[in-house]
UniProtKB/TrEMBL annotation:
InterPro entries: ABC_transp_permease. It is found in: Cell membrane. It comes from Rugamonas brunnea. GO terms for molecular function: transmembrane transporter activity. The chain crosses the membrane at residues 12-32, 44-61, 67-86, 93-115, 149-175, 206-225, 231-249, 256-274, 289-307. Keywords: Cell membrane, Membrane, Transmembrane, Transmembrane helix. This is ABC transporter permease. It is a multi-pass membrane protein. One of its GO terms (cellular component) is plasma membrane.
Amino acid sequence: MTFADLHLDSVLVSTVRNAPVLIFAALAGLFAERSGVIDIGLEGKILASAFVSAAVAFATQNPWYGVAAGMAISVALAMLQAYVAITQKGNQLVGGIAINIAMSGLTFVLAQFFFQQGGRTPDLGQARLFDVVLPGSSAVENIPFIGWLYAHLIGGHSVLVYLAFALVPLVHWVIYHSRFGLRLRACGENPHAADAAGVNVERQRYLAMLVAGVLCSFSGAYLAIVQSGFFLRDMSAGAGYLALTAMVFGNWRPVYTFLGCLMFGFFGAVQIQIEGVELPVVGRIPGSLIQMVPYVVTVVVLAGLMAKSVAPKALGTPFVKSR
């Protein structure tokens, strides 16, 4: 395969398929951090929901039971994280990292205990969520560009892909045009002023973490029962951290965060496409270097944008009610 063999259409379709993992997790982090809670535990919640989703989907042969079970474990971890950060006023970074480390080891141990397949679950087979074929796809498939656009770029994806893209305008409306969003932003910017206005800051932050747990569960479920069809140890491969980077890139705003997720999804698609490609002059690039592409982009983005990004003012600061 040579550089000329790369196809932009394949890269774009792969971008759409890669982005939902980041979109769900980034929007989850957005709710948590807009309320003032640092959610560095996204990675652990993704792994936990991926394992539970795959295990339950395999056991029941019903992918929707897997999605529901993944949601339950992700919400449970989010509530544990909230208890440490909000009620106990604990260090939010340490609590999130603890969840990441614990889930990285625990999911592998449980997968090995239940399935004895080297820390992975069996292939899900018919228990996966399969792609949705839009009406009329076969009729327009042979029409140049329009057939590809309708049948492959817009159509031909799992229902979770459509959910991820539909959530972006919904979350934007909730954050900026709803009473809940107004209180959420107030708690993240000036919790004492919010408290003086009659807002229960701790309750609002718990609600934000609940929403974050639900959204993050879709990321893990998508990984396990849509993209891969099984659970594998540390299969999130840093998706939680990439999602946080996309959120910083988007300045804690839903639409710009979404664009950041698309950017990382695009580079992930390019990484897959250029493996084994013969580049002019350089020749074939080692696979290990190609796998570094999304993470190098992450470092560049953080280095260039961290100084320009403005986080919620009370982010990471436990709220202590004034007397």
